[in-house]
């Protein structure tokens, strides 16, 4: 039976991924096709198909019914493939330069067939190998300004906004974030993973009542503030890049939430390079500054030219809004630093540091900076204060 008429889910193999691409008339039956499963993330299968004669290539991404990072004992909804495909389409209309094209989606097989970006590299991998990607921060600032503005109440009618919030209700994936970012790292949870030498600082963190209070305030914001359609998992492993192009992938965690969550994840994942990449520290600090400056400039421009809310057009309200985004960004960045250091899902920027003492020092630094950002976010009022805080840690 054609894979286009499946009524039940089954995981693809390299052979059935080829079959699907032929059923879709993307390639002819006679094409000289190669197919390789290249998924290295936590959750999905990713097949890379290439016609060896013409060079034409595509990606077929398929959600697995469990979290690959843990195994079949952690079941996970297949509905996330639909959320991801719809988010890619929404973001693709708003920021087409920064989002891969979607060719086909199937909710039963939980697959998305999309543009092959393998001429680019995952930004985290590139950074670790020494790439600097001079345009990535400008591109991410623009992506954030456009997606966070055009999916908000300031660009949509009230009815359109509510319909979008409903379309992107994503309880299962939000629960992962609620647990792994906002809960588990702050208590002695089974999901946590950290080197035993870190135990004293981790136990001190678990006893830090002010930290736990402030994290709960941020969690409350994540749970309740439907400001914009978020990517929801915007770390440097969700970004493909080279020196000229930037593409944001994998929005399966998309939902309506506080805008600063996406910006904070970008800040934190650049901060890992600030912490570990000593020779390029200044360059990554500049990347963070550029993300915010471009975001602020382009968001303000959209606010002034496209805003549908007559009462929001006063300069004081824009200043209020940007200050609120900045405070949230700093707090969410702090949470991301902490959870990537001691929670379930780590980052290669830290774990890949070979020398044990250097690695432990980097992880302690990440935890300390994370705590400061969460607890002092109201005092860190602007970029200058933020950069000063970051520099004080060295
Ligand atoms: C079980 S999923 C673990 C992490 O991987 C994803 O990319 C998200 O960051 C999630 O928190
Ligand atoms: Mg992902």
Strand-residue proportion: 5-15%
Helix content: 40-55%
CATH topology group of the largest domain: Aminoglycoside 3'-phosphotransferase, Chain: A, domain 2
User: pLDDT average, as an integer?
Assistant: 96
* Sheet having the most strands: 5 strands, antiparallel
Alpha plus pi helix count: 14
Q: Can you summarize this structure?
A:
This protein has 394 residues and is an alpha+beta fold. Helices cover 50% and strands 13% of the residues.
Q: Can you tell me about this structure?
A:
50% of the residues lie in helices and 13% in strands. It is α+β, with helices and mostly antiparallel strands and 394 residues long. The protein has two domains: 3-115, Phosphorylase Kinase, domain 1, CATH 3.30.200.20; 121-392, Aminoglycoside phosphotransferase (APH), C-terminal lobe (Aminoglycoside 3'-phosphotransferase, Chain: A, domain 2, Alpha-Beta Complex), CATH 3.90.1200. The protein has a five-stranded antiparallel β-sheet with strand order 1-2-3-7-6, sandwiched between helices. A hairpin with a 5-residue loop joins β2 and β3 (57-63). It is globular and about 65 Å long. The protein starts with 13 loop residues before the first helix and ends with a helix. The model has no long low-confidence stretch (mean pLDDT 96). The site of 5-S-methyl-5-thio-alpha-D-ribofuranose (SR1) has 10 residues, from α6.
Present the secondary structure layout:
Elements: H1 14-23, E1 33-37, E2 44-51, E3 57-63, E4 66-67, E5 71-75, H2 79-94, E6 102-106, E7 111-115, E8 121-122, H3 123-129, H4 136-150, H5 158-167, H6 171-180, H7 199-206, H8 209-224, E9 228-230, E10 239-241, E11 246-248, E12 255-257, H9 259-276, H10 281-306, H11 315-342, H12 348-351, H13 356-375, H14 383-392
Antiparallel strand pairs: 1-2, 2-3, 3-7, 4-5, 6-7, 8-10, 9-12, 10-11
Helix pairs in contact: 4-10, 9-10, 9-11, 9-13, 11-13
The protein binds 5-S-methyl-5-thio-alpha-D-ribofuranose and magnesium ion.
């Amino acid at each position: 039976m054609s894979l286009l008429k499946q009524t039940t889910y089954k995981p693809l193999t390299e052979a059935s991924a080829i079959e699907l691409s032929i059923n879709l008339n993307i390639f002819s039956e006679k094409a000289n096709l190669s197919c390789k499963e290249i998924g290295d993330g936590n959750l999905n299968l990713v097949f890379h198909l290439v016609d060896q004669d013409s060079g034409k290539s595509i990606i077929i991404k398929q959600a697995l019914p469990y979290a690959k990072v843990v195994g079949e004992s952690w079941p996970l909804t297949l509905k996330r493939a639909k959320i991801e495909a719809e988010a890619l389409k929404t973001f693709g209309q708003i920021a087409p330069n920064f989002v891969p094209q979607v060719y086909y989606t199937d909710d039963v097989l939980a697959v998305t067939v999309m543009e092959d970006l393998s001429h680019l590299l995952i930004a985290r991998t590139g950074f670790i190998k020494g790439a600097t990607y001079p345009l990535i921060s400008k591109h991410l600032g623009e992506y954030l300004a456009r997606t966070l503005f055009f999916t908000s109440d300031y660009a949509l009618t009230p009815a359109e906004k509510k319909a979008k919030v409903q379309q992107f209700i994503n309880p299962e994936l939000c629960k992962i974030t609620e647990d792994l970012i906002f809960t588990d790292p702050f208590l002695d949870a089974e999901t946590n993973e950290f080197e035993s030498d870190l135990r004293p600082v981790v136990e001190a963190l678990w006893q830090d009542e002010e930290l736990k209070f402030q994290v709960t305030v941020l969690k409350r914001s994540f749970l309740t503030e439907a400001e914009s359609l978020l990517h929801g998992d915007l770390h440097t492993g969700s970004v493909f890049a080279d020196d000229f192009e930037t593409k944001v992938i994998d929005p399966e965690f998309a939902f309506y939430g506080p805008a600063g969550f996406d910006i904070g994840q970008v800040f934190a994942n650049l901060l890992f390079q600030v912490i570990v990449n000593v020779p390029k520290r200044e360059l990554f600090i500049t990347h963070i500054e550029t993300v915010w400056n471009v975001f602020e400039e382009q968001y303000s421009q959209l606010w002034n030219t496209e805003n549908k809310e007559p009462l929001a057009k006063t300069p004081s309200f824009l200043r209020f809004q940007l200050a609120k985004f900045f405070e949230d960004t700093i707090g969410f960045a702090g949470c991301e630093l902490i959870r990537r250091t001691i929670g379930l899902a780590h980052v290669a920027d830290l774990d890949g540091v070979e020398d044990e003492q250097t690695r432990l020092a980097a992880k302690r630094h990440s935890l300390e900076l994370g705590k400061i950002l969460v607890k002092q976010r109201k005092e860190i009022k602007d970029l200058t204060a933020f950069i000063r805080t970051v520099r004080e840690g060295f």
